Amino acid sequence: MTTRIGIDTGGTFTDVVRWSPRGVRVHKLPSTPDDPARAVLAGIAAVREHPHEPVDVVHGTTVGLNAVLTGNLARTVFVTNRGFEDLIEIGRQERLDLYALEPDRAAPPVPRRLRVGVDCRRGADAVLRALTAREVARAVAAVRRLRPQAVAIGLLHAPADPRDERRLAAALRRALPGVPVTCSAELWPAFGEYERFCAAILNAAIAPVVGGYTQRLLAGLGCGRLRFLRSSLGILPPDEAAGFPARAMFSGPAGGVLAANALRRRLGERQLVAFDMGGTSADVCLCADTGAEGGSTIAGLPLPLPSVPVHTVGCGGGSIAYADAGGALRVGPESAGADPGPACYGRGHEPTVTDAHLVLGHLGADTLLQGTLPVDVDAAVRAVERLAKTVGLGTAALARGMLAIADATMARAILGITAERAVDPAGLPLVAYGGAGGLHAAGLLQRLGMPRAILAPHAGAFSALGLALAGESVEASVAVREPLTPASLARLQRLGRDLLRQAADRLGRGQGRGRVEAFVRHVGQGNSLRLPLRPGLAAQFAREHERRYGFRAAAPIEVVGLTARAETAGRAFPAVPLPAARARPPRRERRGPLGDRVAVVQRQELGPRPLDGPLVVEEATATTLVPMGFSVQATAYGLVLQPRRAAD
Hints:
Layout: E1 3-9, E2 13-20, E3 23-30, H1 36-47, E4 55-60, H2 63-70, E5 76-81, H3 87-90, E6 115-118, E7 121-122, E8 127-129, H4 133-145, E9 150-154, H5 163-175, E10 181-183, H6 184-187, H7 193-221, E11 224-228, H8 238-243, H9 251-267, E12 272-277, E13 282-287, E14 296-298, E15 301-303, E16 311-313, E17 319-323, E18 329-335, H10 353-359, H11 377-391, H12 395-419, E19 430-433, H13 437-448, E20 453-455, H14 462-469, E21 473-483, H15 486-507, E22 513-522, E23 529-532, H16 537-549, E24 557-567, E25 588-591, E26 597-602, E27 611-612, E28 615-618, E29 623-626, E30 630-635, E31 638-643, H17 644-647
Parallel strand pairs: 1-4, 4-11, 5-6, 5-9, 9-10, 12-19, 19-20, 26-28
Antiparallel strand pairs: 1-2, 2-3, 7-8, 12-13, 13-16, 14-15, 17-18, 20-31, 21-24, 22-23, 22-24, 25-26, 27-30, 28-29, 30-31
């Protein structure tokens, strides 16, 4: 069996997990923001048995996402119907900030001069103005004059009949060999031209960036193969990843969600909250068996492709603390990143969340990566002291305030993802991972009333572990517009079975599993709910609509799209061996820089017997803080942290 390597690139660290039948090996190294491929290749080399060992690399990357956020995109030309060139700028009549006197709108990544109108028009069920060969030639010539690095094509009603988009794409590919061309109806065959056009433009604009990055990795990989995780979980086939890189836009955070779901199934939980706190940001996600959702927003632009519902806030170990114009203490979203990093790294001077933990003794000089990443405790204290004098607090009080603000920011994020789905977080366990997740898990339990936290094995590289555990997946979608009746439901189920067969054939695996989902809404609604396509769909929609929005409507119901997913089961979540049940974990004392005495225990020394706080649990890639009033114990699938009253 080929060795699987999962790699997750973060803003501060690049995490590598080598999975084989002999076990799991974790390697962590600083990211290289100027060229993430350098750290990825160095990580692969570090876990390979020899340079020519065949490996199956599954990569979670934010290269495409970062390109959108920073505006580092390819020069993209957008081809659409004449008269509709400005549709992507007009957008929807939505006001995201109701109280802004001068609201700001996201500018589309294709300026007006790079939009080409084509004289053709299809309706929902008829050709209104045919696309002629002469018009195709004129459009191709116009695009060539603009010297594009990528082309996106979006025509009205293309999901109902994509032939015009395909004709234009074929002509452009002949005229511009090597220039990636994206057809909107192939990327996302769904109604809603604004969202579909934006998705096509974003996909085209990141294709050269992701393609160049992929080529650099393949050139250095040698013997093996490289694949990406789709944003809706499951490994993308290589040809799909090359043509539609936007489907892997959130592959990095998706790796952690995949691992959290695998752990959830091992624990027998119906729902839980995944909480990933790294060096730059914190990601939260409500994990359940409902699958991916219908899209997200990037830099103010819609990306309607299926993705796990991850919510990200700018709060990580490297988040910088400062005093605002009114003298109030703030934390993030600006981060010190990998370079210069927190003040304790010795290159920066701004106080960060990591520095606050060092000041309070939660981290020690030899904690990070078991001492292989040396830190300067005195530099952390000096950075926090400087800010403390500015805001008029003591050093320890300021450090505690920084951590409280960080906890409040992440608690709001968890409330956001649960409240909008009508779920009370007080009844859900928290799976905490990332290098800093365990340091803040207890604070989140206290703020939200959650019953317990599971500190995942290999917590500092948990997303990379999810990538190493991932199975294969293929998705197929089609736009429909059917009033939901018993007769139409039967037709839709037949169409769904055909879609699932197409996806299974592309998957090429005889032992795959699959599901079909429908996008359902009331007639006249703008958004739809994604539900399993099965008998009783109307009643299921009414119940879910009431749960989500608090009411049932009398308006007719329609189905506006189907999607089928074929997949193979991923690897099972690996159990962790425990020491003998009677062995009491050894304890040792050390002083924090401000004179506090901190009890420290190594994670591998913990057994199933609960151990009461206050103490700190250290491991190779993460640290867990167990405050007074909490207890911690080891299980085969992670540490369990809970309020002591719940443990009694």
